[in-house]
Design brief:
GO terms for molecular function: aminoacyl-tRNA deacylase activity; ATP binding; leucine-tRNA ligase activity. The strands form 13 sheets. Strands 16, 17, 18, 19, 20, 21 and 24 form a 7-stranded mixed sheet that branches. A 4-stranded antiparallel sheet has the order 2-1-4-3, with no helix packed on it. The protein has a 4-stranded parallel sheet with strand order 8-7-30-31, with helices on one face. Helix content is 29%, strand content 21%. Helix 3 links the parallel strand 7 and strand 8. The protein has 975 residues and is α+β, with helices and mostly antiparallel strands. The protein is globular, with a radius of gyration of 37 Å.
Length: 975
């Protein structure tokens, strides 16, 4: 049972609004007015809040009639009808279609706003996904109303491992599941009212699309930017494919947790390193978060240094022809080198380890095997304990001719630099840790500029060089500063033939092959006569006229177990004829990685139906670059870097007109699941406070239901035992944690506009936020109040009258001021993507509007337009009810009039005998007499003037009024 209580309005109401706020129906039998203020009624489990009375707990509710048990659904506003009606209207009228070339008015400014298009999984959307989509939709709707041509498309990044794994597990063709998942995602996105141009929808799995992905590959191949190489890769036998470093966690595949090993395989590579400098330099001109640009700079990792050669020594200590080349950014520390380290996959390793040293051979082989099961990230993690094995060999340091041992260690990568390093344990923390573990010498050769050297810890900074001179032919750099010493060493190694100066990059060429079925076929063939060659087979591109090369139909997608890709099972597809020679050939059976299709999709959206060109030149020149690109921070490096690389190649060959694809990038924060509360228990099963578990030994955690939790100060505690503090934590949404919130459920209960509004109101777009279902009720109430402010209360059957409460009368000055302040705030906040504060401004406006006697149409209509980017369904319905027959999508967005933004009154301080006693509100242009009269009438100030004689008044307009009184007390002040 619940209680409905009438709430007195805060001030007297006019007749029309008074009736409006008191006419909520609580029974199926019409009652024009609710109970009087002193009355209370009890009903079944109902809950909501309306203007005149409060029903506790929820926003949309059910009430029961007095005569029967008939349930009447009472909603804050009829979103269930409005949203379906306007989504259908937008579809049927193609409201958000971006005109084609012949229709497009290119004299208007353009705005291309893009989401990082999603991978359509079977799980569908959760409430975290619409965060970025809502932000871009607000921007798209806002810019349309400002007169821009807007391109706001959506598509699907649908090739990749998850669909293939699902196909293997279920026996369902990945194309079938992909289409089903796309349909699910599309339905969900449409239910949220996003203004995408669905006529431009694309999928990376469609041959009409990947024809041009293959075409780009052929251009890369022509220019030597695509090549084959035998490289060590992350091979997962269970998945039967190569995995990227980020797909390997703790030596197992991120998907499925299968063991991953490192093994050399023939792979396709893209020469992204050829564009390293341009990728680095052009970052400076981009309107991207500095953190993303810095991540890209670090990933590219440009450094200047030297390559130095260390000759391998024979068993009797003589110099051999074998040499180990190392790259160093600190040639000034070369006299501090006490050992060399080779990566386990270094090509010289097998020749260095002597066959006679069987024990060493065994140790090295075992170490290589262990290292092959680790990802590059694991191997280079600073916190991990360093490990290695002695090779049994020595090399000569060229500057002092000392013999130094050669070790193998997995903290050195074969893919970076030369796969070997000169170890200077006195001045590198990793080398220092390794040297201590294996009892290797540590030679100090740099002293810090601050002269506070601690020779127990490594010093990696610059300083003055010590202990660095040679008694024979080496360089003499003692006393020099690090930078000058580095130059001297580089000059010396170049002069003596022991090395050369070098610019190096951390960036590696892009591994561009996957041993999967569900991906773009690589459009090359290999002649059968070259198949037995010991060298890499020569690829022959298929003619561009034969594109797209489509995937063959396969029933068996399982890994072959041999390392050959699943496509090798399509024998009739693999065996073909090379076009120009007519000779038998075989197709490439590797496929492209999932990254391929997502590298250039932003271009195809400009011209999605073009069968003769990747993109029409005129369209590309108009729409490029993407003005705002919104997506998750997890794509801050690789996706953006790969897209930039492909774009620059296309720029070089004249396909695109800009050097960069994305003008502005925004990373939205993630939405975490609702807060979960955990209580700690000791070994006997007793609750212990979370702040004491460090001293209580072993403990277990138990999840506590929300209803058993209360807040105490800054902590959460058990209601039944406030001494037990709980652990409160929100996690990223995932099925495994059971904290996924389905947007379909939210839309059903509160409506799409409420979900959109709540996701924007939770906090700044770029910040991570915690989902709280009860929090959505606040914005839902705001929408309900906005609706009823304009339309009125529901009729007995739950419907609303077609008319509104607005009047065709001139607005007051206060109304105009409130409106234009709201316009200014909402406009500024949308431009700055501070959507939460824009919503706050509209909430303040509605609160103010409820105090007005009348609602002029000229005030209400601009407010509805302000609301429309955020809550488009409600705004369209209100616009229609205000007498308009067309969509508001292309109406002009309101502009703030500066005349109404200025304050016409000020707060004037009033002093009595030089001491401030209060303030009065006066007009900006106010005479001394008017100011004094207002002060005399003020209740607080009048007591100081009553019965007093005014000797003098000092008035500074707009600043202060000072009233000087005589000391006589028996005279009345002159007014």
């Amino acid at each position: 049972m619940i209680q409905i209580q009438w709430l007195l309005p805060p001030q007297p109401l006019t007749s029309s609004l008074h009736h409006h706020r008191r006419s909520l129906l609580f029974s199926s039998r019409r009652r024009s007015l609710p109970p009087k203020p002193s009355s209370t009624l009890t009903f079944s489990n109902v809950s909501t809040k309306y203007f005149g009375f409060r029903v506790c707990n929820c926003v949309n509710s059910e009430s029961i009639t007095e005569e029967s048990n008939e349930v009447v659904k009472v909603r804050a506003y009829p979103f269930h009808e409005i949203e379906q009606r306007w989504q259908k209207f937008w579809d049927e009228n193609r409201t958000f279609r971006t005109p084609d070339d012949d229709e497009l008015d290119t004299s208007k400014p353009k705005f291309y706003v893009l989401d990082m298009f999603p991978y359509p999984s079977g799980a569908g959307l959760h409430v975290g996904h619409p965060l970025g989509y809502t932000a871009t939709d607000i921007l798209a709707r806002f810019k349309r109303m400002q007169g821009f041509n807007v391109l706001h498309p959506m598509g699907w990044d649908a090739f990749g491992l998850p669909a293939e794994q699902y196909a293997i597990e279920t026996g369902t063709h990945p194309k079938i599941t992909t289409i089903k998942n796309i349909d699910r995602f599309r339905t969900q996105l449409k239910s949220l009212g996003f203004s995408f141009d669905w006529e431009r929808e694309i999928s990376t799995t469609e041959p009409d699309y990947y024809k041009w992905t293959q075409w780009i590959f052929l251009q890369l191949l022509k220019r030597g930017l695509a090549y084959q190489a035998e490289v060590p890769v992350n091979w997962c036998p269970a998945l039967g494919t190569v995995l990227a470093n980020e797909e390997v966690v703790d030596g197992v595949s991120e998907r499925g947790g299968h063991p991953v090993i490192r093994k050399p395989m023939r792979q396709w590579m893209l020469k992204i390193t050829a564009y390293a400098d341009r990728l680095l330099e052009d970052l400076d001109d981009l309107d991207w978060p500095e953190s993303i640009k810095e991540m890209q700079r670090n990933w590219i990792g440009r450094s200047q240094g030297a390559e130095v050669e260390f000759h391998v020594l024979s068993k009797d200590g003589k110099v051999t022809d074998a040499k180990i080349t190392v790259y160093t950014t600190r040639p000034d520390t070369i006299f501090g080198v006490t050992y060399l380290v080779l990566a386990p996959e270094h090509p010289l390793l097998s020749s260095l380890v002597s066959e006679a040293q069987k024990n060493i051979v065994t140790l090295v082989d075992e170490y290589k095997e262990v290292a092959s099961r680790k990802s590059d990230l694991e191997r280079t993690e600073l916190q991990k304990e360093k490990s290695g094995v002695f090779s049994g060999c020595y090399a000569k340091n060229p500057v002092n001719e000392e013999a130094i041992p050669i070790y193998i260690a997995d903290y050195v990568l074969g893919s970076y630099g030369t796969g070997a390093i000169m170890a200077v344990p006195a001045h590198d923390s990793r080398d220092h840790e390794f040297a201590l573990k294996y009892n290797l010498p540590i030679h100090w050769v740099i002293t810090s500029d601050e002269c506070c050297d601690d020779f127990e810890k490594p010093y990696s900074g610059e300083g003055n060089v010590i202990n660095s001179s040679s008694s024979t032919s080496g360089p003499h750099i003692n006393g020099l500063h690090s930078k000058k010493a580095a130059v001297e060493v580089i000059n010396w190694v170049e002069k003596t033939g022991n090395g050369n100066r070098k610019i190096n990059y951390k960036l590696r060429d892009w591994l561009f092959a996957r041993q999967r079925y569900w991906g773009e076929p690589i459009p090359v063939v290999f002649l059968d006569e070259n198949s037995e060659s010991e060298t890499l087979p020569i690829p022959i591109p298929i003619p561009e006229s034969e594109l797209p090369l489509t995937l063959p139909e396969l029933d068996d997608f399982t890994p072959t177990g041999t390392g050959d890709p699943p496509l090798s099972k399509a024998v009739s597809w693999v065996n073909t004829i090379e076009s120009s020679s007519g000779k038998p050939a075989k197709r490439e059976t590797n496929t492209m990685p999932q990254w391929a299709g997502s590298c250039w999709y932003y271009l195809r959206f400009m011209d999605p139906k073009n069968s003769s060109q990747l993109v029409d030149k005129k369209k590309e020149m108009y729409w490029s670059p993407v003005d705002v690109y919104v997506g998750g921070a997890e794509h801050a490096v690789l996706h953006l870097l790969y897209s930039r690389f492909w774009h620059k190649v296309l720029y070089d060959i004249g396909i695109v007109s800009t050097k960069e694809p994305f003008k502005c990038v925004i990373n939205q924060g993630i939405i975490l699941g609702e807060v979960q509360y955990m209580a700690c228990k000791d070994k006997d099963g007793n609750f212990v406070s979370a702040d004491s578990i460090h001293a209580s030994g072993d403990h277990k955690q138990e999840r506590i239901p929300d209803e058993k939790v209360t807040k105490s100060g800054a902590s959460f505690v058990l209601k039944d035992n406030p001494n037990i503090k709980l652990i409160a934590r929100a996690h990223k949404m995932s099925k495994s944690r059971g904290n996924v919130v389905n947007p379909d459920d939210v839309v059903s209960e509160y409506g799409a506009d409420s979900l959109r509004l709540y996701e924007m109101f939770m906090g700044p777009l770029r910040d991570s936020k915690t989902w709280n279902t009860s929090g959505i009720e606040g914005v839902h109430r705001f929408l309900g109040r906005s609706w009823r402010l304009i339309v009125g209360s529901p009729l007995s059957d739950g419907t609303y009258k077609n008319q509104t409460l607005v009047v065709d009368e001139n607005p007051s000055l206060d109304q105009l001021k409130s409106l234009h302040r709201c316009i200014e705030k909402v406009t500024d906040e949308i431009e700055a993507t501070r959507f939460n504060t824009g919503i706050s401004a509209m909430m303040e406006f509605v609160n103010t509007a409820y105090k007005w006697d009348k609602l002029p149409k000229s005030i209400v209509e601009p407010f509805v337009l302000l609301l429309s980017p955020y809550a488009p369904h409600m705004a369209e319905e209100l616009w229609f009810r205000l007498g308009h027959s067309t969509s508001l999508a292309y109406e002009s967005f309101p502009k703030a009039n500066p005349a109404y933004l200025k304050d016409t009154t000020i707060t004037l301080p009033v002093q009595i005998n030089g001491k401030t006693r209060g303030t009065v509100q006066v007009e900006v242009i106010c005479t001394e007499e008017e100011a004094f009269k207002l002060a005399s009438l003020d209740q607080k100030l009048s007591k100081y003037l009553e019965g007093k004689i005014v000797k003098k008044r000092v008035y500074v307009p707009g600043k202060i009024l000072n009233v000087i009184l005589e000391r006589e007390t028996n005279k009345v002040a002159s007014l």
